[in-house]
Write a structure and sequence with these properties.
The protein is mainly α and 55 residues long. The protein has one domain (2-50). It contains three helices and no strands. The protein has helices at residues 2-8, 15-27, 30-50. The radius of gyration is 11 Å and the shape is globular. The mean pLDDT is 86.
């Protein structure tokens, strides 16, 4: 969740999308949305290593 929250601050992906993903992933369809959450977490980890800091 920390990685998704950090990605949310980058304005790279719309914050409402990440919010809905986190809510839906946890509450309803973790097997369906889990892959999307994992990909976005990996994107944030890549940003942390290779890109400028979040705003």
């Amino acid at each position: 969740m920390d990685s998704l929250a950090q990605l949310r601050t980058r304005d790279f992906i719309q914050a409402p999308f990440i919010d809905r993903l986190m809510q839906t992933h946890l509450a309803e369809h973790s097997s369906y949305y889990g892959t999307t959450a994992w990909v976005l977490m990996m994107l944030e980890l890549w940003f942390e290593r290779h890109a400028s800091p979040a705003r």
